[in-house]
Amino acid sequence: MSSRVVVLSDTHLPTRAKVLPDMLLAAIGEADVVMHAGDWVDVATLDLLEARSRRLVGVWGNNDPAPLRDRLPEVARTTIEGVRFAMVHETGAASGRERRMDALHADDADVLVFGHSHIPWDTVTPRGLRLLNPGSPTDRRRQPVGTFLSLDVSGGRLADVRLVPVPSVAGLSRPV
User: Fold this and answer.
1) Are 86 and 109 spatial neighbours (Cβ–Cβ below 8 Å)?
2) What is its EC number (predicted)?
3) Cβ atoms of residues 146 and 136 within 8 Å
4) pLDDT of residue 173
């Protein structure tokens, strides 16, 4: 068995963009699991992803108000095709991240998904924990384009991890 997973974070709707890009919505519709690592900012985005996802796993971020925090955990854990995932919004500074995450997730995860920085990240800690940050599909900050991750999970391992570039969503007027 194989599962397709879409990983996104830091959508910041409607403050940084008005809508999610069509290509991302198409990927969400085709995914077996969608993971959102926080900073949704509005409840409408959570409602949209719940409606469009076969299975949604999400956490709240530092910019998420009480209504989102009431519906989402700070840390989420799930197993997909035998791979143990943990997800949080923030992991702290990039310097020392691998060591800190090894200490925090020594026994509970094979992959840690996080957001917050809007900067894509894909490393492996000394213990073997895979650290993944999808960047942001709607607020690229200092990155050349917005991004999200597409994963294939099969046979107890990540069979494929792809960073997907997202064209600018500026000027789109379709409501969320």
Assistant:
1) yes
2) 3.1.4.-
3) yes
4) 35
Which CATH code for domain 2-166?
A: 3.60.21.10
Domain ranges (residues) in the chain: 2-166
Distance CA 70, CA 60 (A): 9
Which tokens in the block code for residue 162?
Answer: 């792809």
d(CA 38, CA 174): 23
Q: Please report the pLDDT score of residue 171 as a whole number.
A: 40
- Residue 92: is it exposed, middle or buried by C-beta count within 10 angstroms (0-12/13-18/19+)? exposed
Confidence of residue 176 (pLDDT cuts 50, 70, 90): very low
Which tokens belong to 44?
Answer: 């409408």
Q: Which amino acid is present at 6? A: V
Picking from 75, 61, 72, 56, the residue whose alpha carbon sits closest to that of residue 5 is 56
